[in-house]
Amino acid sequence: MAHTCRGTINLSTAHIDTEDSCNIVLSNGGRTYHLKANSEVERQRWVTALELAKAKAIPRSLCENDSGDEEPASQSDKSELHSTLKTLSSKLEDLSTCNDLIAKHGAALQRSLSELENLKLPAESGEKIKAVNERATLFRITSNAMINACRDFLDLAETHSRKWQRALQYEREQRIRLEETIEQLAKQHNSLERACRGAPGLSASSTGSVQSAKGEASDEDEETEYFDAMEDAPAFITVTADPKHHRYDSYNESTCKDLLPKKRRRTRIPDKPNYSLNLWSIMKNCIGKELSKIPMPVNFNEPLSMLQRLTEDLEYHELLDKAVKCESSTEQMCFVAAFSVSSYSTTVHRTAKPFNPLLGETYELDRLEEFGFRSLCEQVSHHPPAAAHHVYSKRGWTLWQEITIASKFRGKYLSIMPLGAIHLEFHSSGNHYVWRKVTSTVHNIIVGKLWIDQSGEIEIVNHKSKDKCQLKFTPYSYFSRDVPRKVTGVVSDADGKAHYVMSGTWDEKMECSKIVHSSHGSTSTEGKQKTVYQTLSPKVLWKKYPLPENAENMYFFSDLALTLNEPEERVAPTDSRLRPDQRLMESGRWDEANVEKQRLEEKQRAVRRRREAEAVEALEEGKDYEGYIPLWFERKVDAVTGELICVYKGGYWEAKDKQDWSTCPDIF
């Protein structure tokens, strides 16, 4: 077929086969797809539908014009349609002639039989002649019905031929317009690449950064979604009070950067190669699909796995160390809120996609001696992709979560929706905090400069004291006068009384201001009454660390991110640091990394097929089949949220001390 998208199979030449009661195999030349239905009945329905589509595709492929000349093809289709109708008419005339002959000879046969009936014949012969006469009558009626059905079919074909022609012409025009649009996008992309290569080197000074920031707004095209600046006006107003009349303890702003680590970590990785890639040729087949199910080359990746990106949320772990020392639960909530926002600071320039972990892949980050915590992640499910994470700190807190990434590519932007709750518990007070992540959106996927935005709301709940913090991530608006990437929120107690106002941006810093007085202000345009908070001067809780030198050539990695894939001894054989395709990509050998990535994915598919075969065999034998069981985590119902999540069951660090990895699967 002409002008097909990559990944399609021409049904007119495809072979449709069934492997077992639920599997379907579609093959066409070198391309083979394995499909699985939920049941044998559903499989048969799919096979029937595919066979019907194949039967329709065969005559359509015969009249397909590969030259792309639409007008002659249209005339050819018209003449072929008329020729078909003419042939049908001719055949119908032949059938009518046959019908006349049948009627004529049938009438003669019936007269002869009537004459035989009038003769004096034995009773038995008369009965037989009568039966033959009835059958001849039925034959004539049936032949007449057949001719009438053929005539009705011809009338229907003539009636709908014009409508079919119009529909066919409309589809052709739509295809032409789509091809022109794709061609225009490709030309724009190529011209932008040439302009980028031909432009002089930009200065890395602050002036250049400001110009780049302004350029982001100018890269927006007419299809960009804009938000009305007045649509979500803040529900409160803050007024700074005179600090002379109030006593307020300032927070200690020292960071863990002041602590010298006992082990020297690496501070750079090989520079990112400058490989050109036609983005549209890969992404055009991905619209509407789950990002985790799209086979992509490493050109779109960064040399870190999703497990390592999840661990990167701990970059500002010192906020939780400070929160342990807070005497007030509402004050502690402020640090927890700042920690929840700080996890997004690394995403502002990180537009590359992390590697999808293999099932059973793990990642440890042991910083017990340096920073007092150790972290473990494990990929516990592949479809949907889910990762379990557990962090223990000897400084008084434990964090755990199970995150499932739901993502959709919508043509001009990519939405990433983390699903799952994050739990944080402080050992001494027993305060148990729970919150969820907001939606991340990657804009300008096809044309323009990629940029990331965070939008939505986070509700942090202390399930012991019932304190709450409502954080709002304001989506970017071209017409808004607010600071980009703005985050605001209020910390309130169990009675709903507000104690602190949170403000800042998710890419730079977060501040909190203690509320000394609140009152009702003016009514907004939406009819809602705003609350005016009188606060003390804001205190900085969190401020982003500056990026290391030459970060733009190292995937915009932070100091912590540069060390995440650093080779370490004594780690589990399933650790992300040992993943070969990721290591090759970090070294700049992208072609070899792509080959290795395909090998690992095919190996994982083979394991999944073997596991499915075992499940079928167990079902046939009437046995229970548990499926994949995580190695270091187990599924339990959470007592707070009531959700079924994977929690750490122990044993990993003991296995590391003994170097006993006999239970680990061979995934690399």
TrEMBL record:
This is Oxysterol-binding protein. Pfam families: Oxysterol_BP. It comes from Athene cunicularia (Burrowing owl). It comes from the Eukaryota. The lineage of its organism: Eukaryota, Metazoa, Chordata, Craniata, Vertebrata. Transmembrane segments: none annotated. It is a peripheral membrane protein. One of its GO terms (biological process) is lipid transport. GO terms for molecular function: cholesterol binding. It is found in: Membrane. Its main location: membrane. Residues 203-212 have a biased composition (Polar residues). InterPro entries: OSBP_sf (IPR037239), Oxysterol-bd (IPR000648), Oxysterol-bd_CS (IPR018494), PH-like_dom_sf (IPR011993), PH_domain (IPR001849). GO terms for cellular component: cytosol; perinuclear endoplasmic reticulum; plasma membrane. Belongs to the OSBP family. Keywords: Coiled coil, Lipid transport, Lipid-binding, Membrane, Phosphoprotein, Transport. Residues 168-195 form a coiled coil. PROSITE patterns: OSBP, PH_DOMAIN. The keyword DNA damage does not apply. Residues 1-55 form the PH domain.
